[in-house]
Design brief:
Blueprint lengths: L2 H10 L4 H17 L7 E5 L7 H4 L4 E5 L3 H11 L19 E7 L8 H8 L3 E12 L7 H5 L8 H11 L1 E9 L4 H14 L11 H12 L15 E8 L3
Parallel strand pairs: 1-2, 1-3, 3-4
Antiparallel strand pairs: 4-6, 5-6
Helix pairs in contact: 2-9, 5-7
Length: about 240
Amino acid sequence: MERAVFDRMAEIDGEHWWFAARREIIANLIERQAGLGEAARILEVGAGTGSNLELLMRYGRVDAIEPDDQARALASARSGIAVKGGLLPHGVQLDDGAYDLIVLLDVLEHIPDDLGTLRALLPKLAKGGRFLVTVPASPWMWSSHDAAHHHHRRYTAASLTRVFDDAGYRVRYRSHFNTVLFPLIAGARLAGKLLKREGGDDAIPPKPLNSLLTKLFGAERHLVGRARLPFGVSLALVAESAKR
């Protein structure tokens, strides 16, 4: 991503409704689907500025990877974790069989070779380990926001499942989320296309609106991991090795 995008993320990821509510949803998804025991080892790939690391540290010992130098330095300072550099699928050294949970939280869409990356990470899962991803959904929603964040794709449920199947995983759970706000966000993205707006749409709204959006989006934490929502701005998937 552009340097300015990382800088902006560092400014807003503590309170912006999307980041705050998504962390609540991810926490419940981990608790319901990851099957973690005591002393779990967790790897976050694409840690960015480190906004998810404190959350992940609730569930075990965390390692992290982030290729951007400045984002990695900030993530390390925030978390106390020595975040590794390097690019997947071949530029990072990780131990085989090391991790009970590997997470890519809105990262896979940034990677040109998503299939190669998933294949490279599969041997790093411990026996019975799980793999959790969140990605942007609905290719028809592609907008200047995706371009500004250097996305290579948005996924459908079928295309996300297919790349995991092809990489040697078995999908345990898959659902859309960010469903409640889907009509509002879809409308804003379509309006942006018609008006030919450029750049991202990640400004923090006024406090009352930001609080309301956080509550509306965050309410989905009661469903994600239990039910399967049929549409939404994003997709979540939990997988394991197909060789059990």
